[in-house]
Amino acid sequence: MTKTISAKLPNLPYLGHGLRRLSHNGVEMFCLRDILASCEYISNQNHMLYYNRVSAIMTARLIHPSYHSPMVFATEAGVMQMIISMMKPEARAFQDWFSSRPSALTDQSSILAQPDKDDLRATLTSLKADIHSQEQVLHQIRVQAATIEAKLNMLV
Fold it and tell me: How many Å apart are CA 126 and CA 138, to the nearest integer?
C-alpha cells in the first residue's frame, strides 16, 4: 500500500548522487533506488532482489507530491541491512560514509528503526551455521591438499 507523506528532507550529497530522504511518522527514511545507485548497482538490474533483503517493517512504499511515482524508502536500519548484504567495494565505502553521517532527525524512537531481537538472533544462528559449514569444507580441502603434497614428496 502506498502512503502519501508530507515532510521531504533535503537530499544528501554522496559522490555526485543525491540521496532522497523523507520524514515519515517522525522517522528519517531513504530512497533505496538512490542507495543502489550510490553503490554502483546498474539501474536496469532487478532492484527488488535487494529490496527483499530488508525486513518489511523497515520499509514503506511512499509518494511525495514532488516525485512522479511511488518509491520504496527504508529506515536507517533498513538501509544498513541492505548494504551489509552487498558484496561490492562501493557498498563498503557507502556503508562507512552512511554510518558516520549525522542524522537529520534527533527523535527516531519509532519501532521502525529498531530491529527485532528474535530476527537478529535467528540471523546470527544462521550465520554461525554457515560459518561452521564453510569451515568443514575448508578442512576437507586442506586434507586433500596435504594428501596430494605427501604423494608428490614420495615421488621425488
Answer: 18
H helices of the chain, where?
32-38, 48-51, 76-84, 89-100, 117-155
Q: Are residues 94 and 123 in the same domain?
A: no
Whether the per-residue pLDDT at 144 is higher than 90: the answer is: yes
Alpha-carbon span 27 to 112, nearest angstrom? 8
Q: Are both 139 and 101 inside the same structural domain?
A: no
Q: Is a pLDDT exceeding 80 seen at residue 12?
A: yes
Do residues 59 and 136 share a domain?
no
CB of 63 closer than 8 Å to CB of 28: no
Residues 91-130 have pLDDT tens digits of 889 888 888 887 665 544 443 444 567 767 777 777 777 7
Q: 3-class DSSP state for residue 84? A: helix
Q: How many folded domains does the chain comprise?
A: 2
- Find the domain containing 128 and state its range: 116-156
Pair 43, 72 in one domain: yes
